[in-house]
Amino acid sequence: MSKKIPKRVSISYTVDFLEVPAQAEHLLSELSTSVNGIAKKIRNIAAQTREHTVESIEDIAQTKELLSKASLRLEDVFSILTGYIDIIKDIVEAKRIAEEEAAAAKLPPEPKKKPAAKKKPAAKKKPAAKKKVKKEE
Fold it and tell me: FRET pair for 108, CA 20 to 30 Å: which of 17, 55, 79, 118?
């Protein structure tokens, strides 16, 4: 009974929540170094392709594997950071709900309002009558 050896395994360890961005930065820095090495390898392949086509094909296959691993590492960091942001969102939402509930608990219940009575239209004022002034002659 033979079991297949997996190509990838998950390694799990814990860090302080506030250290997550620094850990992600460290992983990305390592990835940057790897990608720079891959870029150099690709430049070397390009330089030798005319004279050493067969070797170039083999080097390209190896480079594809390296790029695949780099992509997986990038996906790991992406997952770590999105998980970190999700936790922050959950904390902010829980705090908002707690504040709303605390504010609601402190307020007395709102009294039931009676329907507003309809206002009668204001009576129109009659214009003042003009006094006739008699001219004396």
Answer: 118
pLDDT per residue rounded down to tens, the chain (137 residues) = 678 888 888 888 899 999 999 999 999 999 999 999 999 999 999 999 999 999 999 999 999 999 999 999 999 999 999 999 999 999 999 999 999 998 888 877 667 776 666 666 666 666 555 555 555 54
Taking alpha carbons only, the member of 71, 72, 42 closest to residue 59 is 42
Q: Are 13 and 77 in contact (CB under 8 A)?
A: no
Where are the domains positioned within the chain?
17-106
